[in-house]
Write a structure and sequence with these properties.
about 210 residues; 9 helices; about 0% strand
């Protein structure tokens, strides 16, 4: 009979997510993981298989934990343009905060591993598609309520906004001056306003 585990695997994945999110895959050594997870190498490899396997488990947890919490409002049947603005504004407001140095773990994976690692690439692609669909849904909801012009292509706009948000994440991690992100946010807001019907557009006469 094997010895009972002295650790909880889910807690270990959560801790691994923290350090991978901050340092990335390549800059996180096995010793970093051993120190941060506070387990020995044998237990870590016996439980998770490899550093790559642990990273993928951490990335999946990030999707469930962080992405879901950020996108829950957009994925609602009542979401709209204001929810898109609120989401992007929330990220932009975090420029140069201590947390912003981490950026977005999914975006970090896209630039660090996705070009060469098929499993990470699939996870990133699925995340981009989820983001795109969430933005698209908000625009479709707004169209249904007559707030957005009928000729606006929600699917294309969803992809555009997902790519735009990924750009914000890269700039946050790069510690770009906050004014750059504030100005970019203003441009996004003007663009979204241009999709609205005249009745709802803030730039309409009167």
């Amino acid at each position: 009979m094997g010895r009972p585990k002295t650790y909880d695997p889910e807690t270990m994945i959560d801790k691994a997510m923290e350090i991978f999110w901050l340092k990335g895959f390549h800059r996180t050594s096995t010793q970093d993981l051993v120190n941060h997870l506070q387990i020995n190498r044998y237990s870590m490899y016996a439980e998770f298989g490899s550093k790559q396997d642990l990273y993928e488990a951490a990335l999946a947890l990030y999707e469930r934990k962080m992405v879901t919490s950020n996108f829950v409002a957009l994925e609602s049947s009542e979401s709209g343009i204001s929810d898109i603005i609120d989401l992007i504004a929330a990220f932009a407001s975090g420029a140069r905060s201590p947390e912003s140095k981490r950026g977005c773990m999914m975006c970090n994976a896209a630039t660090e591993l996705a070009p060469d690692e098929p499993n990470s690439q699939r996870v990133v692609e699925a995340n981009v598609e989820r983001m795109s669909l969430a933005f698209s849904r908000a625009i479709k909801n707004a169209k249904r309520r007559g707030e957005v012009r009928s000729n606006v292509r929600a699917g294309e706009e969803g992809h555009y906004l997902a790519v735009t948000l990924f750009g914000f994440f890269v700039m946050l991690r790069a510690q770009i001056p906050p004014k750059v992100l504030r100005d970019a946010l203003k441009s996004v807001i003007r663009y979204l306003d241009s999709l609205k019907t005249s009745e709802y557009s803030s730039s309409s006469p009167g």
